[in-house]
């Protein structure tokens, strides 16, 4: 800006402002302003034309009055007149007034636009700049309509001054933000990209901002910017700090430009050109190297600028997620910041590490910092940093360190801020469940959690612990003992009481042998807390009491007395009253047998996705969830976890790798049996989807690719039904043999045979069955399956029995396919395509084009893909007709990520199926399996 | 029960802070300043609730008086007390201003100790207070005087001490009224009322019993029924209907209720005997006839005529007419027959001042207002023309019929007392729409 000469200082304005500042009261100020406004009005009204100076002065005063909060309804015309002045200061004030005060005022906007147009067309760079600034400041639709087409040509014109180019780029950026539809994309875009090569760094900086925004809008148009950006970046990072003169900020070369370039590069995947890629890697390495150098200045600005560039570089490295060395280096760099004095740096380091932890290459490196992070959690003064530390701990947790991390989080929970407690509780609950190798540990952890932060434990958490205890026989006794002990504390949280009531009601008998926890003691313990808790808990406790009556007949009179008391029978709450009356009545009239039936132990809960995880996701809000679990676990198909899981698998006493253990006793049969029986008694619905029931097993077999239950074999004697469950690399098949005749089968036996190769890939363990099957009866057999590695063969089920003297031999292919060991994976579009590209090696992809065998119905196809075991990702593929899925195959040794894409072509009635997995054999097998289904 | 009383200057600085109860903390002082005095938007309500503390405030010139309490008090009581507090301070040191408050620090604290005890209002009669809270040094009072003060303060008649003696027994009575009016441009009265006060200054010896009579319609009607018929008809015209009235504490309310007679033992010195309000048969001293003509977009012609509507022998004084001008006025030309007129830009109004004006006269002003065309589509709201004046009669028509003084113990009779009666009528909000 040209210096304001002495004569240009507006004395009247200064006097007016000082008058206003000296006003004693609001009223005095209003009076002074009214007076001034009247004066200005009379001046503007005056017949003799005002000279530019006084016009500028009065417009300035009006602006000042407006900024004080008063309405200004005149003077616009004078301001517009100032635009046509030739003096910089007058023009400037005119533009200032317009940018501040203009609204979509129809009669003036054309005048203003005209003024701006004149200035844009003038050769004077300062005037052009003023006009561009005005457009950018106002940024209204009208302005965009009038100038959006003109500005790009100014921007790319060869003879435009640098400063004008800079303004034009920023102005265009602003218009693109306010009304993106009005900014035309055209041939100028290609030329804009070349501004990255401009000598003037200011222009480059402005252009980078513009290109970044535009590249997000249409990435393809600006793909060429990658190479230019990399070249520019490398020139900056390799330059000596003095080379860039004005653009060196406290010894850091052009920090803003570097940051912007790095941001721009984050819009794209890693460059494919090897040379470019190595050049970029070099740059990033240089930036990381520079971070190691001793600081050139003690000033905070120096370190801020340096760190800004560094963090942006790390963000880019994480975004690319392809260079292991860089990732590890970034991680180490961040590790240094973890102990930095600057709170902001610690925060940023923790935040970046969170994302690093989800990368397969750096996960291990992040884990080395666990002690520092835990220390940060304990000693950090700033709550937001502690929060980040919790996030990072959550992200870096895996089986090897879960115990430590959960313990630390629990101890932190005791003095954590109330605002983040609930989130920590959820995280602890999830980690404890996910990485539990030992149920006693899990139960201890959750009970501890309830004890420490009962108020923040949501329903889902304690539901979950009950579900798990009920589903796991071996932990029930321990759980009962632990809750009994926990309940003995003088003050315990209501949630603990709920868990305690439920578990003791179910499994109190398991600890009743100990005189210290005899039935009466248990009951008294629960009942001592009864009056302190809310209605829902009381209702739950009443149910526990009636369960006690069943478990321990000896406490029946005591409990009946309690139920009979007025405080229950006449309770004001209807629910409690009803329960008390019904339970009392039930206990009086029902025989022990009926009681035992009614109050039988709860059947196991059907397995479903942990609701806690869903809750955490919801809490974090969409998009913010670090999908690190899935991302890390799945699609890259890495093997670190399988290594970790191996030792635990080998321990025979704990043969589970997850809480959802499939190998334990077949107690769960009862409820499932009911399901299947109903299925069998009306076999009609099952075969409707396929061709009618025949003896050809293969057809049945292929139906089982996408479903788990149904009839696999049927002849006039025998019907074989299947119900199977799979979880990770484990499966369990319930085989139901139905005798369709009226006489019994004798010496019934069944076995599973596998080929030699298959034996090394798949473990099938058969439970022995009863040798006789009565006429019309059904026999159940359980097969436990463990997948060791990927396989393509199928095991065969051989059934032998004697019917009416003749030996019957039946062999059925067991529908155990590789896809049964799928775990679905949800991911975003970006993630998907990134993974897709990473699995780009030709061997990893299998593609097949086949003719549709069934009508092409979207819903049916959806159901089939879901049944196949992968997650169906909607909104990923640009073409909504295509089906996209992702999942991970769990085998004992490895996990194989798999992405599939099914493109239907309704005209030709053809499908194209593309599969990409990290293993060739898996791709082929899955493709074979799936292609037969449509 | 008032918890605390604070006085602030216009900047919100605390001049006086007196806390009576523990439930009001020091931070209450700041709370009021922050949320009321320095509030972003002007606080209009005189009662504000801030953090479960209620603040009642009145403003006198640039000084804020605020009473704070955390209890559920009678708001009217608190305001009455605040007004009394203002009266007391005015009686002691004149106008309430920052300067005066600063100069009378000690006195104000002394007064606050006396008139408010643990938050309960006490005797706030300036006359009585002046006997024992003085601005001079404490005179060595004899035992008798001290006991007299005690008996007076604690006795039945707290507002007057015994043993007052004057050589000349004099009595001044002022009837001060302010007349409020809102009139339509066509001359139709939209609302009008008079609020009046009877202010007395008495210099009487002993403990005299006074009786005040005026042309109250109820009293006159009663007498009219008792007396002859034609007499009643004659006086009926001159009686006025009082809508409501309040009295000084010295007036015996039981007597007023039963006989509607106002009898009292007056305090010594200045006091306000009664306040009243009338809404019927008001004599409007002036009539304002506005004439506004818009000539195009940039010009406005205004003509205002005022007519005095009272006896020609009386003179109205300090007449001031405020004619609002549009917000985009850029110039004004004025012609007036009488007095002086000026365009005041800071108030957005033309102010026309006439020193004196006799009854049954009229005068006019005409103005040409030039306007600046604006972008604003809003139409000018045309605020009403307001007027100020002072007239030497009571616009309500109130007449003092008698004021009798009886002092049985001392030897002076009603005739020996010199009585002065004065009527002053002022304008309140006296507006005419245009």
Give me the secondary-structure topology.
The complex is a heterodimer of chains A (934) and B (434).
Chain A lengths: L10 H12 L3 H20 L6 H16 L8 H8 L4 H14 L4 H16 L3 H14 L2 H7 L2 H7 L5 H17 L9 H6 L7 H17 L7 H14 L9 E2 L2 E2 L1 H11 L8 H19 L7 H21 L3 H14 L5 H15 L5 H5 L2 H10 L3 H14 L5 H12 L4 H17 L4 H15 L5 H13 L1 H15 L6 H14 L11 H12 L4 H17 L4 H9 L1 H4 L4 H16 L2 H7 L12 H10 L7 H6 L6 H11 L18 H13 L3 H4 L8 H7 L5 E6 L3 E10 L2 E10 L6 E8 L2 H6 E5 L11 E10 L8 E8 L2 E8 L8 E3 L4 H10 L6 E7 L6 H11 L2 E3 L9 E8 L4 E11 L4 E8 L2 H12 L3
Antiparallel strand pairs in A: 1-2, 3-4, 4-5, 5-8, 6-9, 7-8, 9-10, 11-14, 12-16, 13-14, 14-15, 15-16
Chain B lengths: L3 E5 L5 E6 L7 H11 L9 E4 L2 E8 L2 E7 L5 H19 L4 H6 L1 H11 E2 L2 E2 L4 H7 L10 H12 L15 E14 L5 E15 L5 E6 L2 H10 L2 H8 L7 E4 L5 H7 L2 E3 L4 E10 L7 E10 L3 E10 L6 E10 L4 E8 L3 E5 L4 E10 L3 E10 L13 E7 L8 E7 L11 E15 L2
Number of helical elements of chain A: 43
**Roughly how many Å apart are the termini of chain A?**
72 Å
Task: Work out the strand percent of chain B.
Answer: 35-45%
Which consecutive residue ranges of chain B, at least 5 long each, have pLDDT under 50?
A: 228-236
Largest interface: A-B, 20 and 19 residues
Q: Classify the oligomer.
A: heterodimer
Report the β-strand fraction of chain A as a percent range: 5-15%
Report mean pLDDT of chain B, rounded to a whole number: 87
Main beta sheet of chain A: 6 strands, antiparallel
**Spatial order of the strands in the main sheet of chain B?**
11-13-9-8-23-21-16-19-18
Tally of contiguous helical segments of chain B: 9
Shape of chain B: globular
Tell me the Rg of chain A in angstroms.
37 Å
Spans where pLDDT lies below 50 across 5 or more residues of chain A: 1-6, 621-696
How much is the radius of gyration of chain B in Å? 26 Å
Structural class of chain B: alpha+beta
Helical content of chain A (DSSP H or I, runs of 4+)? 55-70%
> Main β-sheet of chain B: number of strands, strand sense, barrel status?
9 strands, mixed
Protein structure class of chain A: alpha+beta
Shape of chain A: globular
Give the CA-CA distance, first to last residue of chain B. Answer: 48 Å
